[in-house]
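Render DUF2909 domain-containing protein in 3D.
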Amino acid sequence: MLIKIIIGALLIFIVFNLARAGVAMARQQESTLPMSHFLGRRVLYSAIALGLILLAIATGLITPNPRPY
């Protein structure tokens, strides 16, 4: 159950960084962090989430859905 909470929190953080990148793009001020900073963090956390999901499936902590046919 803990692994599912961690994955869910990572996915929420990914969407949060996407929203912050959108705000940074709309403002286009020089004093704030650039949009690429937030998009880079989003890509990093997406890679971590994917690796964590693959590791959890390989170790048997979570099981994927069965085939539909």
